[in-house]
């Protein structure tokens, strides 16, 4: 949700020590926050406008962090891309739910992770968090979408769009850290099934290399 970033760097920023990211979380609203925000902004329209425009796959980056402009106090799940979002992550999902209610034949796919890496788990995926905190967020996701969530006890790659429409299971939730974050819930899909070419994950480079060899052959 980079169209709605604050001027506050999210804690546990990728590749940065916890102490440094905590310090920058405190300092960025007043020092360089706007610059960092503009560097991280990759979207210029709201999630509702994205859906209106035909986007059906949303890369939903989240982290458990104090809210924007807060040095101490209550932590919650916010979207992030360098800086954290102005609103809590669940509020953007509520906007998706509202859109789905107005478009009863549409199917939306969301992929929740911290940095687009489907492989990492636990605190490698979400530093400084507990399984209970991660599972509580997924509980909020279930509260928002309810029966709209796809039940993965049926195989997704064997399920047609018309079947999803007929069952009204029109939200597919891919979860990084699937086992701990969702307790292996059938209402989520393990994000490791996504073929994401993220070089820093350790698998993207080899996958890309194989593709290149096949293409040459």
From TrEMBL:
PANTHER family: PTHR13593, SI:DKEY-266F7.9. It comes from Effrenium voratum. InterPro entries: PI-PLC_domain (IPR051057), PLC-like_Pdiesterase_TIM-brl (IPR017946). GO terms for biological process: lipid metabolic process. The lineage of its organism: Eukaryota, Sar, Alveolata, Dinophyceae, Suessiales. One of its GO terms (molecular function) is phosphoric diester hydrolase activity. This is Phosphatidylinositol diacylglycerol-lyase. Pfam families: PI-PLC_X. Gene3D superfamilies: Phosphatidylinositol (PI) phosphodiesterase.
């Amino acid at each position: 949700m980079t169209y709605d970033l604050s001027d506050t760097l999210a804690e546990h920023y990728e590749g940065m020590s916890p102490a440094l990211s905590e310090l920058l979380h405190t300092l960025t609203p007043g020092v360089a926050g706007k610059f960092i925000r503009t560097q991280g902004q990759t979207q210029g329209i709201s999630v509702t406008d994205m859906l209106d425009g035909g986007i059906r796959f949303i890369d939903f980056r989240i982290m458990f962090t104090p809210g924007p402009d807060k040095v101490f106090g209550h932590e919650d799940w916010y979207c992030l891309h360098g800086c954290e979002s102005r609103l809590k992550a669940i509020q953007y999902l509520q906007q998706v739910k509202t859109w789905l209610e107005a478009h009863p034949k549409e199917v939306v796919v969301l992929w929740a992770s911290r940095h687009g890496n489907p492989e990492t788990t636990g605190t490698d995926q979400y530093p400084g968090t507990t399984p209970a905190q991660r599972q509580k967020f997924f509980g909020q996701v279930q509260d928002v979408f309810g029966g709209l969530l796809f039940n993965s006890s049926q195989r997704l790659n064997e399920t047609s769009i018309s079947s999803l429409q007929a069952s009204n299971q029109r939200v597919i939730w891919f979860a990084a850290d699937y086992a701990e974050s969702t307790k292996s819930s059938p209402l989520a899909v393990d994000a490791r099934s996504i073929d994401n070419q993220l070089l820093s994950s350790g698998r993207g480079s080899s996958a890309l290399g194989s593709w290149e060899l096949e293409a040459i052959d």
